[in-house]
Write the structure tokens for this entry.
Amino acid sequence: MTKIISREESIKLGLKYFFTGEECKHGHIYERYTCNSVCIMCSTVRRKEWQKNNRKKIKQYCRKWHDKNPSYSKDYHKDNSEVRNKKARKWRKDNPEKAREWKNNNKERYKELKRKHSRTYRRTNHGKLGTICSNVLFRLSTGKLYKSKFYYLDYTTEEFLRYILVPFPQFNTLQEAYDAGYQIDHIVPIKLITTLNLDKELSFRIVMDLNNMRLILAQENSSKQDSINYPIVRETIEILQEKYSISIN
Ligand SMILES: [Zn+2]
């Protein structure tokens, strides 16, 4: 129970609130502000009401403030991007109709965000692996898979990265390897896999098998000319044949 204290007394004591124990005119039994005798609950209700009816004004105000404080805004967004993304994803999941409506009402902004997002995403390891998958699918000319391309991989992005970067402790990300002139090489060439006429999911899984991938310098890659007589290619063929019960000649 909150202690009963009159306004006069709370003024004398320099308190922010007082409490009479009586209902306000809207039926709340709540503390009131010493300065103006307004019930806190009434004030909260009114503020929320005002906020609801003045979304535009608030938005404008916030935007102005952020424009005046660019570095604060930038740092804040950087620090909280993960939390915010998670929140936004959850909101979209919980409010699919509202999300769709927003998308329809803000087509330009949506496009811009999407472009920005995919630019950032493509720079991540997960995005890079996705690009590798897409390139393989394109070269297999299989058309669309039934499920997300990541579904067919028997490894996670982290496992992929750990495996592929083992010979290169100097790199922490794929981007660093790319920047140094390295490329992903599929040891048993995609061309050879396509001649086997396997179904598209299986072809994709074989090409994308961890055993079938390595990082090599771009110039090495172009001089390789798909020779299946290289020991590493023969070796990999053995592994893939056994793992997928196929025969590659
Ligand atoms: Zn009230």
Q: What stands out?
A: The chain has 13 helices and four strands.
